[in-house]
Amino acid sequence: MYKLKSNQTKGEEIHVKEFVSWLTSKVLYGMGKAATFTAPLLFQSKLLCCSLLYLFTTLFVALYHSLSPTKCLFRSSPFDPIQSPLFLYPPSYGEHKYSLPTYRSSCSSPVYFSDYWLVIKEIQDLCDNSTLGSGVLRYMQGKSNSFGGNFSTQKRFSYLDHGNNDNWEVPCGFFKRFPISNSDWIAMESCNGIVVVSAIFNDHDKIRQPRGLGSKTLGSVCFFMFIDEATLKGLDYHQLISRKSQEYKIGAWRIVKVSTKNMYENPAMNGVIPKHLVHRLFPNSKFSIWIDAKLQLMVDPLLLIHALVVKENVDIAISKHPYFVHTMEEAMATARWKKWWDIGALQMQMETYCENGLQPWTPNKLPYPSDVPDTALILRKHGASSNLFSCFLFNELEAFNPRDQLAFAYVRDHMSPKLKLNMFEVEVFEQVALEYRHNLKRVANSIVSEGKRTKRASHDLFVNGSKCHKYLLGMWGESH
Questions:
Q1: 162 pLDDT exceeds 70?
Q2: Considering the entire predicted model, what is its pTM?
């Protein structure tokens, strides 16, 4: 018990007793009511706590996804891209509807971009001083009812072994005049550096502007979009261009109208001409990028060509297919998902390739990591090997169908000289370009032809008697 010391007064004793009483009450309160400790008001509401948890989780996920696209694309130094929109679309056009999300969160082979200004100088020096171009090849000339000449199988295959015979004329389309205006021809021939090419036939896609362009890119890179009459009507309906104009331009793209009256019946086959014969349409260009109209380019084309083609010292850069490695896998998917209407013709195509030496992919084919590319984005250095490959591939597409992934490996593996190829990872492709769905609705006043009814094969695909039986056993690991 507390006792008063000799030098303390009665008043001091009273104050001490009051303090002890107060302290005792607090101790007793803590002993008896510790379980009912009152939390701060901020955390008394369960709803508020849940809301805060959701908020911080959402912010973390958003921050992660906003930073994850840079995992595959690295710049050694920043540059100032063009900030203002290249073109203002009317709301009715809906150029950014129906984008497809990507779900890859990792990157096994990131791409490192060099300094933008150094890239401009190096590309310009290559274009000014190199012997790149299509002048090293001689192309077969003549007249035919078909744009590609409609050569037989053995005739087409006989040209694959070109070797170093520069005097050998190569069939490479243009057995008919490519029906565009003279002013467009002049503009295409004057493009002597990098050209970016796309096409929309049968009003199948939207025109989307490239993003991430450096301040000097539009002055040194050409952008050409090939369209047909059906697409032109759709653009006129949305008042993007006037049909009365002699030349058309939408943002970065110069629009080239192709009269398809005497061309291929299939619009996709007409689109194959600018896709694979770009070196003939732009004879003075040194590099090219083909981009399907379903894609929007998200990276400056100068940086892409430099990082994926020039630094890698290759003829062509193209993405691996996200799912398939073997040609036959793509053929079966084409038939299964009705990507081409004549299933019997698909079977005949694959039987032809198997009979003439098509093999499934194995490590023996390295440095080629796959037989199936994603051809929606193709980067080329215009030289003998890449030009020959493009010609040979086009000949196969005219002979069979415009599904270029089916002929890709056969032409690549059997042609000479060999192709230097950079097949980059899918996650890089997904950061380089943003993918959209094709037009889902019929645009008013546009001409949209009805698709052909699927023609079934006469019997089951690739049964035991098939010329592809050995290929399938090898693909499935049952060849031994």
A1: yes
A2: 0.81
